[in-house]
Amino acid sequence: MTERHFETGTTVSTRIQQTFETLKSNGQMAFMPFVTAGDPDMTGTQKLISTLAATGVNLIEVGFPYSDPIADGPVIQSSYTRALNKKLTVHQIFDAVSELPTDELPPLVAMVSYAIIFRIGPKAFVESARDAGFSGFIIPDLPGDEAEEMFGVVREAGLDLIQLVAPTTPRERVWEILKACSGFVYCIAVAGTTGTRENLQTDLLDQLAWLRAETSLPLAVGFGISKPEHVDPLRNLADGVIVGSGIVRHLNEIGEGPEALDTALEAISTFSTSMVQATKPS
After folding, report:
1. Is 72 a known active-site residue?
2. In this predicted model, what pLDDT tens digit does every residue of 200-236 receive, in sequence order?
């Protein structure tokens, strides 16, 4: 079985690793919602993160808006466009997250393009993210089997680099990807972009069973997970579920003003609570 740790004489236990270990001991799956930084604005994002944390989510994925996302469907792309139209910057994201009591929140995972990281510099970006309160990274446009250098930078900072694996990823390539993966494996439920779907595909379940024998890292499923009914078929195969569009869509049509945001946050809180409940032991 494959598992990677950053060695400093002893194995470092990250916040993400500790979260999954605690959940496993309680017989519970993780629920990780996705939010777009800066949609509708960074103050709204702070409120959204706090709202999700209050419902008991286990991790929160924070998307860094990018003009050319490669894996995001129309709902998340639209949220990225709204944020970028307001001239959002990476440092504004770091500043806003640093204002949150991140030690009291679940681990925050940055979903960020390598183009953004490269422009700032991998070491500088990772250290700034760590100082702001992030616990790990998902970098969708960095090939997993070419991520060794970035993996070293992330692990040196005591954080996790989560890798994506799709049902169509050749198994020989999966083995290479796992060499530069820590925290958990992001298992893509379907071929294509993010977005809500009705059913899970059989090839996903087959791959999860195979991955379970290949790595001791937790397995979390995203892309297409959109309702509590999607959780049960994954029980005993996956360690967590990730929901993106199902959260972001509530912000797509809100109007201006705090009342509109409060209405969206109320709907998101209700949905998140239902997902958290679905991940608990039945």
Report:
1. yes
2. 556 788 889 999 999 999 999 998 788 999 999 899 8
> Which entry of 72, 145, 172, 214 is annotated as an active-site residue?
72
Q: Are the beta carbons of 60 and 86 closer than 8 angstroms?
A: no
pLDDT of residue 195: 41
The answer to whether position 8 is within a domain reads no
Does the global pTM surpass 0.85? yes
Residue 201: name the closest of 227, 167, 170 by CA: 167
The mean pLDDT value of the chain amounts to 88
| CB contact at 8 A, 54 and 271 | no
The count of structural domains within the chain is 1
How far is CA 65 from each of CA 38, 49, 136, 234, rounded to the nearest angstrom? 8, 16, 17, 30
CATH of the domain at 168: 3.20.20.70
Is residue 88 situated within a structural domain?
Answer: yes
Determine the average pLDDT of the residues in 113-118: 96
CA nearest to 240, candidates 220, 212, 267: 220
Cis bond upstream, residue 40 (ω within 30):
yes
Whether residue 240 lies inside any domain: the answer is: yes
User: How confident is residue 150, by pLDDT bands cut at 50, 70 and 90?
Assistant: very high
Residue 195 lies in a domain: yes
Q: Which of 3, 39, 61, 127 is catalytic?
A: 61
pLDDT of residue 197: 42
Place of tokens 């702001």: 132
Residues 104-121, mean pLDDT to the nearest whole number: 96
Q: Which domain holds residue 231?
A: 15-279
Active site residue 141: no
